[in-house]
Amino acid sequence: MTKDPVCGMEVTSPSQFFVEKNGEKYEFCSESCKTKFINEPEKYLVKPKEKQAATYSITSNGKEKIDIPIVGIHCSSCIPTIESEIKKLPGINFASINIATEKAHIEFSNSEVKTGDIISAIKKAGYQTGHATMSLGIVGMHDASSISQIEEGLKRTSGVLSASVDLATGSVIIKYIPGLVDLNKIKNEIKKLGYDTFDTSGVKSDKPEDSKTGNVEVDENQAAREKEYKTLMRKFIFAAVLALPVIFFSYPTVWNLPEQFQMGSETLRLIWVAMSILSLPVMFWSGAQFYKGAWAGLKNRSANMNTLVATGISAAWLYSFVATYFPGVFPSAELADQFFDVIFVVVALVILGMALEIRAKGKSSEAIKKLMGLQAKTARVLRDGNEVDLPVEEVVLDDIIIVRPGEKIPVDGVVVEGSSSIDESMITGEAIPTEKNVNDEVIGSTINKTGSFKFKATKVGKDTTLSQIIKLVEQAQSSKAPIQKIVDKVSGYFVPGVIIIAILTFVVWYVFGPSPTLVYALITFVTVLVIACPCALGIATPISLMVGVGKGAENGILIRSGDALETAQKLNTIVLDKTGTITEGKPSLTDVITANGFTEEDVLMLSASVEKSSEHPLAEAIVNGAKDKSIELKDAQNFNAIPGYGVDAEIDGRSVLLGNIKMMKKFQIDLGLLEKESTQLADDGKTPMFVAIDNKAAGIIAVADIVKEDSVEAIIQLKKLGLEVVMITGDNTRTANAIAKQVGVDRVFAEVLPEDKALNVQKLQNEGKIVAMVGDGINDAPALAQADIGLAIGTGTDVAIEASDITLIKGSLKGVVLAIQLSKATMKNIKQNLFGAFFYNGLGLPIAAGVFYPFFGLLLSPLLAGAAMAFSSVTVVTNANRLRKFKPKF
Amino acid sequence: MAIDQIIVIIVGVGLSVLVAWYFWFSEKKGVKIQSSDTGVQEAVIKVKGGYTPDVLIFEAGKPIKLNFIREETAACSEEVIFSDLGKKATLTPFKTIPVELKIDKPGEYNFQCGMGMLHGKLIIE
Question: What confidence category does residue A453 fall into, taking pLDDT thresholds of 50, 70 and 90?
């Protein structure tokens, strides 16, 4: 078979229509194609290496010519549709589509029609053109007039499909046809309009918010975090250093200081004055964010941690200020005490807590940063026969990309030449490199280990597996676990509630407390404000969710939402689809049984040679089985398929029959003991086929969809997790039971039609069970959606991923075990955090308010309260980070 | 009971009522966002200790673009999360970070910072 270069049809070689040119023979489907070729051979003789690069030229008579790559033309019958859509446009002189090069060749007059219109026409016909998107920063763009100037100017540039300026980011997003125009040309064009450009974040897709997947932005956020950490540490050190002498002089009795430093002395009063002055930079520089945050919150009628700390230290300062400068205001001298130490210590500790939290949080989001960092930056693409290094976002569909050993694969694609072993661990979690040959799929951002190969890009930009994973992970991390709803309810009332508690504490201590009542009232007021930690409550769930979901992604498990995570640990029943989930999903040769003196090799060779001509999936298994045993196959003559029975053919003059028992009876073959053997094989879940050579029974060949290597182990683990394991399959009960016995499944739903799978899941749910469904195919989608948790296994189809709650990139059932273990670990972590946060606040607040004072004399110093508060949220983050050490338990 | 104690009780209870009213019961005013010529409903939200404005009113079914400008480096507001919509954005300080949404179903959609301390609301009519 060969391809007609004009219309792209498959032509049986040798064809009666052919032309010899440049020593090559071109064959055609018809006389008309041949004539077309003879008239304009250069039009059809485009070398494949030129395939994707669009070309563009202006002819002498002022007409423009353009070649636009079109994605996904498969049949010659679609060509007229596209051509007629293009020809509907004004100013088109010529339009023709070449299926071999997958390009539209168009001649048009630039004054009447724009490239963009042509692209829209192609789109209207239902096809995509190969295009890329880039984002460029523009300097000095301020108003609407410069926007339209730049947009219009760029749209006039040939090869640019669209340009849209985003004033907010000061950049322009340009869709263009690579090959027709490139980065430099566009930059020049913008320069001509009077603006300077700068490169913005690399990965820029249609939606601006996706720009955060760009490494540049990530680094910028990291840098901002780092800067904030350093600033906080400086503020902490400043406050902490000053806090030491302040504490020293605040407790003269504790340190047994000489008389002149004791209460009431003139020296001490001077020291107090110094403290009151030093406390100002501590409050308004070190503690500036408390005041800023409190003020901003107040304007929005919302209160937060800053409100609490700001109110607390302000109250302490005011009291101390009066005690220092106007001690006479107080009715008794003992009331005129200062609490400057509280300001220094609380500010220092809370700031330290915030700094440590930033550090810890940076680690929590490591997983997604790692994923983003996986993206390759450049690709070596074959364009116009040359290898060119392009930014990865300029790679378009169907580009041929060259990958050398040790390099990163830039986008998703299919190998077209060469072979290699590829480390896919970053995407699938599978540690062992995978062998890839021609026609195998490769995933972008995985690493090529040994060989060199070329592959064709099938998914680029935000469609790549990696981009999809990042999107899914981000979505999941921003989702809410249902358990969070309690927290949300509480946190809305929390801070104002604490302020009210603090006020009431003050009142109660003032009215009913021991003397000096004012001092006690103030101390308890400040302590209540300072000890409450709304942050610990706020981050308890999201931070664990973030770490858990990220950890999943590292292991090839994509958890869609917090909801999925929470449900996954409540499961008690798991339904496994048989084909493709427990088993490999395609049959392979399992047994060869011989009779009447025939050898195994003979039986296999002859039946495989017969099946070579058949297209049945079972035939493929037999042929592959023979090839695995290095058996050479022969050509069959007089091949004849009898539907419902089997096949017969002649090989080297020997007649071979291959089929079921009906076939054997039809040809009156005496099967002898073979019939019993076949029943045994069928009981084991295999499909036996009888072989007869020269009308004598020769043996049985059995194929079966074999069980995946680790299915048995995974099912044992699932049972250990306390799950009832159910198998669901369309196979007959006998085969189904055989497989179930082999892998240790107790309950089987056999002979289930694909459309009834969801119904069976529902049946289990009606028994009051919380059901997970594991499946791989499109026809599992309804069942995946029906189940409480749908797990799509294997790279899976988009439909299955869409319908599922958890997606396993790797095809092994082990992933299911891991996913459930991880969900349990994450939920446990969330609960620990929530318990910790509630317990801390629930116990801390009453102690601070002095509830236990009448009974045990227990009262907390505001200094201790500040320390407790600072470290409670650090503890929560640190606990969440423990999840990062989660290791699969088998 | 001494006069100062009575004053403290009255002032204390009064303050508590004021706090409760101010943060819980006072009506928050929403800002109604008009759509531009291109049909996009675009709003700028300043992030500094809170979201300004924090209650925004949009029309259903039309694209929404929220431009967040985080005018502080405090880590609390680093992330903005639309958990009802499954969206999240990391706000780089002093840069405009756009978040694009399209909500078809009228109702109230909350957004908040990563720690749940700052709150905002989109009202879709």
Answer: very high
Task: Count contacts between A and B (CB, < 8 Å).
Answer: 146
Helices first, then strands: H and E counts in chain A: 31, 35
Q: A762-796: string of b/e by CB count within 10 Å (b at 16+)?
A: eebeeeebbbbbbbbbebbbbbbbbbbbbbbbbbb
Please tell me if residue A224 touches chain B, with a CB cutoff of 8 Å. yes
Catalytic member of A577, A602, A776, A788: A577
| A577 flagged as catalytic | yes
With CA atoms as reference, the chain B residue closest to A294 would be B49
Residue of chain B with shortest Cα separation from A288:
B74
CATH match of B31-124 with 2.60.40.1640? no
Q: Which of A114, A113, A221 is nearest to A160 (CA)?
A: A114
Residues β-bridged to residue A408: A447
Q: What is the domain partition of chain B in residue ranges?
A: 31-124
Count Cα neighbours of A133 within 13 Å in the Cβ-side half-sphere. Answer: 18
3-state SS track over A647-707 = EEEEECCEEEEEECHHHHHHCCCCCCCHHHHHHHHHHCCCEEEEEEECCEEEEEEEEECCE
Selected residues 230-289 of chain A with any CB under 8 Å from a CB in chain B: 231, 289
3-state class (DSSP) for residue B94: coil
> For A180, which DSSP code?
T
What's the gap in Å between the CA of B125 and the closest CA on chain A?
Answer: 22
The pLDDT value given to residue A582: 87
SS3 at position A337: coil
Distance from CA of A356 to the nearest CA of B (A): 11
The residue assigned the tokens 């000053």 is A242
Of A168, A208, A293, nearest to B49 by CB-CB distance is A293
Whole-number Å distance between alpha carbons of A259 and A266:
11
Q: Do the chains contact at B52 and A300, CB–CB below 8 Å?
A: yes
Taking the C-alpha atoms of residue B56 and residue B121, their distance in angstroms, rounded to an integer, is 6
* A500 interface with B at CB cutoff 8 Å: yes
Apex B16 CA angle, B10 and B21, nearest 5:
125
Residues sharing a CB contact under 8 Å with residue A193, sequence separation 6 or more, in sequence order: A149, A150, A153
Which residues fall within 8 angstroms of residue A164, CB to CB, at 6 or more apart?
Answer: A151, A172, A173
State the nearest Cα–Cα gap between A231 and chain B, in angstroms. 10
* Interchain proximity A208–B20, CB inside 8 Å: no
Answer whether B73 sits within 8 Å of A224, measured CB to CB. Answer: yes
Measured CA distances, A852 to A157, A443, A863, B112 (Å): 78, 63, 18, 36
Confidence at residue A237, expressed as pLDDT on a 0 to 100 scale: 95
A43 has a pLDDT exceeding 70: no
Tokens representing residue A422 in the block: 């590829």
Cis peptide bond upstream of A496, omega within 30:
no
CA distance B91 to B97: 6
Which of A306, A507, A508, A524 to mutate against chain B (most B CBs within 10 Å)? A507
What are the tokens at A709?
Answer: 């290597």
pLDDT value of residue A770? 93
Mutate to test the interface with A, among B3, B26, B90 (most CBs of A within 10 A): B90
Best probe of the A interface among B117, B119, B121, by most A CBs < 10 A, is: B117
Query: What does pLDDT average to over chain A?
Result: 81
Q: Is ipTM over 0.95? A: no
